[in-house]
Design goal:
About 10% of the residues lie in helices and about 45% in strands. With about 325 residues, it is mainly beta. The protein has a 16-stranded mixed β-sheet that branches. Strands 6-7-12-8-11-10 form a six-stranded mixed barrel. The protein starts with a helix and ends with a strand.
């Protein structure tokens, strides 16, 4: 059995000093495609929908497909395109489309697509959607993935405390008590925080609600160990399985201090692995971290404004 995040914490504490821990899910479809054809989005009014959590505590939202459903899709800000499980596509009898190149956290591979006439989330919908159909291994709670192709310069609010998500027009915000607004820049369709550091050294940080744990690259690992704040024997070897069935090794470490804008965070669990996704986003040469749900859910809400290029953290 693959342990979840809470079980993993106890497992690592109980097995300190062992060479390896059991595999666990960092549920990442990481659907980044080279296909330039984006679906046509209808509806510009604010759209708010109730959400739930899957077995790995990630946010899932109800969608309808060609009037059928609702089906539960994983909300993944690390994916530039939505996808559907092959099992659901076959059950709905969706017609096949041309294959596209899909980048996962591990590699790029040609994957089949299917055609959806209308994919609806709340009051918003997409028409004539060519969507990758993937085998979502070990993700029985999700029928697909919602990527940032829904946003198109809009603002996404992930309200963890209120159990809902909202898509709305961009707004100008500033930090105040209980709320931190951090500037960001657009990179491959995602938002990368530009005011972040570890121990005073600048890093790049990306928000990824589809990842159960946070991932760091080798440049960040070298920076953390060179600072002398942690030692190499503090790393715990783990094996990560993605939602598409790919497994890769990583080393888990608790980073003692991280700053995101005006927000200071201590003892941050990070899995260090030099994966394909860092090179895909051109983050492989400088220290970078992909912030997963284990960190994001410590806040009441996180708002990603793709129009104003900011990220807002509401402090619990």
């Amino acid at each position: 059995m693959t342990p979840n995040r809470r079980q993993l914490t106890g497992l690592l504490a109980a097995t300190a000093g062992l060479a390896a821990a059991a595999p666990f899910d960092v549920a990442r479809a990481q659907v980044v495609t080279s296909d330039p054809v984006a679906p046509e989005t209808e509806g510009t009014d604010p759209s708010k929908v109730a959400t739930s959590r899957d077995a790995s505590l990630r946010m899932v939202a109800p969608v309808t497909i060609n009037g059928h459903g609702p089906f539960l899709f994983l909300v993944d800000t690390g994916s530039n395109r939505s996808c559907i499980s092959r099992k659901l596509a076959e059950r709905l009898g969706l017609p096949p489309g041309p294959p596209v190149s899909v980048h996962t956290v591990v590699k790029a591979q040609m994957r089949p697509t299917v055609m959806i006439d209308r994919l609806q989330l709340g009051s918003r919908s997409q028409r004539r959607v060519k969507i990758p159909a993937l085998d979502l291994v070990g993700s029985d709670d999700a029928d697909g993935v919602l990527g940032v192709d829904w946003l198109k310069g809009q603002r996404l609010v992930l309200n963890f405390k209120g159990h809902e998500l909202e898509i709305m027009a961009p707004v100008t915000e500033s930090s105040h008590d209980g709320r931190i607004v951090v500037p960001a820049r657009r990179r491959s369709g995602q938002l990368t925080l530009i005011d972040a550091d570890v121990g005073g050294s600048r890093i790049s940080a990306m928000i990824d609600s589809g990842s159960e744990l946070s991932l760091g690259n080798n440049a960040l690992r070298r920076m953390v160990t060179a600072s002398g704040s942690v030692h190499a024997d503090k790393f715990q070897r783990v094996y990560i399985t993605t939602v598409v069935g790919e497994t890769f090794p990583g080393d888990l470490l608790y980073v003692p201090f991280m700053r995101l804008g005006g927000l200071n965070i201590g003892n941050v669990p990070v899995v260090f692995a030099e994966t394909h996704v860092f090179e895909l986003w051109d983050l492989h040469k400088t220290p970078a971290i992909i912030l997963g749900m284990d960190l994001l859910t410590q806040f009441n809400a996180v708002a990603l404004d793709f129009g104003r290029s900011t990220v807002r953290f509401d402090i619990a």
